[in-house]
Design a protein that fits this description.
The chain is an alpha/beta fold and 153 residues long. It is extended.
């Protein structure tokens, strides 16, 4: 038995002790959107509304638009320049199925500081982690500025 097979067998036995099984991933599981669509299809459910919190420039809204053609998408993005791009993306690629809102989402409405980075998809209400660059390569989390933004809940 090869070492890889031995490891796989050991993991399968260990998981079995806790009532879990190990399955080889299919291509649908490598794509989170496809996996979500497959899950909804298997449950015979229908997705009517999707909330995209921190929509940045709209790439995620675009992808949800493709995978869930019947859904209305509400995209929240508080950073002004990213919000402008989001509106453009939504208008050009999704039509009236995407509603863009210029707010951050939180459990309490009000205002907060948005920590912005070189790439808008890494902006956050949370302060940057000291080791963030280790996980986000190519300067994506190089701090740019702090901006006060409106929050809705």
């Amino acid at each position: 038995m090869k070492i890889g097979e031995m490891i796989k067998h050991g993991v399968q036995r260990g998981l079995g002790v806790f009532g879990y099984t190990l399955h080889k991933s299919t291509s649908a599981h490598r794509n989170g959107f496809a996996a979500q669509a497959a899950l909804v299809a298997r449950s015979k459910g229908r997705v009517s509304t999707i909330v995209d919190a921190g929509a940045a420039i709209g790439k995620t809204a675009q992808t949800y638009h493709r995978y869930f053609p019947q859904a209305t998408i509400i995209a929240f993005e508080p950073f002004p320049s990213a919000f402008a791009q989001l509106q453009h993306t939504a208008r050009e690629t999704c039509g009236d199925r995407v509603t863009c809102e210029p707010f951050a989402l939180s459990d309490v409405p009000g205002e907060a500081v948005l920590h912005t980075n070189a790439q808008p998809d890494t902006n956050s209400l949370l302060p940057p982690a000291a080791d963030g660059a280790k996980w986000w390569r190519n300067g994506r989390v190089d701090a740019q500025q702090e901006v006060r933004v409106h929050i809705t809940s």
